[in-house]
Amino acid sequence: MSLLAAEKKQSVLNGAMILMTAVVLVKIIGVLFKMPLTDMLGAVGRGYFNSAYEIYTPIFAISMAGLPIAVSRMVAESVALGHCRQARAVFAVSKKVFLIAGILGTLLLLIAAYPYARFSAGTKSLPAIFAVTPSIFFCCYMSAYRGYYEGLRNMTPTAVSQVIEATCKLVIGLLLAKAIMSAGINQYESGMAASSDTAATVFGKAVTNLTEANSVIRPWAAAGAVIGVTLGSVASLLFLIIYHRVKGDGIDRVQLVNSPKPERGETIAREMIRIAIPMVVSALILNITNLIDTVTIQARLTTALEKDFNTVVQMHADSINAAVNLARLNISDHLEVMKYLWGAYGTALDFKSLVPTITIQLGVSALPALAAAWTVKNRQEIKTTIETVLRVGMLIALPAGIGMASLATPILTILYGRGESSEAIPIIAPIMAAYGFATFAIALSTPTMSMLQAIGRTDIPMKSVAVAAVCKILCNFILVGNPKYNVYGAVFGTVLFYVIIVVSNLIMLLHITGTRVNWLSVFLKPLICAAFCGVTAFAFNGLLEQIFRPDTTQSILNMGTVSVLIAVLIGAVVYVLSLLLLRALLKNDVSVLPKGEKIAKALEKYGLLG
């Protein structure tokens, strides 16, 4: 298949749909991995696993920040100009650059492993940290392939490799963790049966009871699970290498012959790094902001409690009384209450990134398309790409966010209504609802950054993130430290953070490209339809709860769950009908769906498409 045919096949929406499907599959596989892993390792063993990720993620993010985007953009620009030899030269140079980045990232993690474990995570987390270390190298190198194919507007290799990586993690990680747990328990049981002094040796260490045995086994079992992660990255890389050798890149001989001579490798490498540097700075700012966020929120919560303990406690009286037992609490020591509020806030954060994880793929798919259009000054394609990202982002984020806000308490009751976390639901629900209503801004933050990066203005996202980070920290300091707002002040700061990023990025993007967006189609129609969806779901859930009167003490599969699922289904139907009646969907939006061409023709026949 020729490159031009591949480009025609994968439009911005086609590419985004492929990536979104892969992300959903990866998320499902992740749940299937983490649930049995937690049961197998217990909370302590899962802590060792998490500790490895806590240091791996920021180092990997810094090692890779900007480089795949730089490759994607440079390849897209080269192909748009017909410089196919240049595109291949970019790929060849990128493999060398990514190889160096992978080696440096791996060495950095090896150097940081012991100090991190010694002073933060505990030395028992070292096996898991060392097990995940090689993954940085393989992930960096595979990103050269992903960036290249994304620049060619072929998202299939990236999507398939992500699913392969997650599947190997699931299968190999769980099998290794199970095998290590079984081997350790067998050593313990055999040693206890053969020992006269009721002692056994497990993995070279003497233990006298099952608790001590588990403390020896679980760090290595967690490392086994992490080896699954590393081997998943190896399998993903092997797939991309084989795919490239078998399928190629779609560039034919005629295109190569008609291409001018590519630039020197050193020139390409310098340009790649120049593009990536502002994004590296942005990644550093984000990571530092998250660290400062963690510290300042907890510190200011302590300040709020010290200023007016009773005001804070009365705001969350039922939850705190049930969990902390104020009757036994020494009021001069507020640490327990602070940690409880911080834990509730952290639980709500789990929901904040659910939708943005999906919509971020719009930016990945749009970047090469917009970069190509910007290179050849195709104004109509620039406008179409920007409007598509914004409109589809709103079509996804608005109903999901408003629905999440409308059903915050029922959803939390399903997930946490039977455990110790149930008392915290009155605290978590308002935070979750606030993030739900702000989902549209959170969901557009990364795609707007990607579009600015596509047109060569990588400096703007860096500046907007820096300004937003300062405002967020100031909000934490002022609002979280106020007893009247306490933990809810952190929500305002986070929402403001994303609003500043999106508004500033969007203003500059539209100004630089000279694009005038149809806000009725992009925002107003999806907002009206999403509002209908949220109100319907909220009303039907309330009605069904009155009918079923669910018992939250039962299992997760109770009538409360049924009420929410029915309400969500009815809300979704109302949303789709509203979109059609208001003609908020375009033909291209429907065409990317399975059998979308036939559906689009039928809807167009009855005048239901915009």
In short:
By secondary structure, this protein is mostly helical. The protein is 82% helix and 1% strand.
Output the keywords.
mainly alpha, about 600 residues, disordered N terminus, about 80% helix, two-stranded antiparallel ribbon
Structural overview:
The protein is mostly helical. The protein has three domains: 1-263, no CATH class; 277-516, no CATH class; 518-610, no CATH class. It has helices at residues 3-9, 12-64, 67-80, 84-121, 126-151, 156-194, 210-247, 253-257, 265-307, 309-315, 317-324, 335-352, 354-375, 379-406, 408-416, 425-437, 439-454, 459-480, 487-513, 519-548, 559-581, 587-591, 596-605, and strands at residues 200-202, 205-207. Strands 1-2 form a two-stranded antiparallel ribbon. α9 (265-307) packs across α12. The longest helix has 53 residues, at 12-64. It is globular. The model is unreliable at 1-9 (pLDDT under 50).
Helix-strand pattern, N to C?
HHHHHHEEHHHHHHHHHHHHHHHHH
* Mean pLDDT rating: 85
Approximately what portion of the residues adopt beta-strand conformation? under 5%
The figure for the number of domains is: 3
Taking the alpha carbons of the first and last residues, their distance comes to 33 Å
**How would you write the strand order of the largest sheet?**
1-2
Helical stretch count? 23
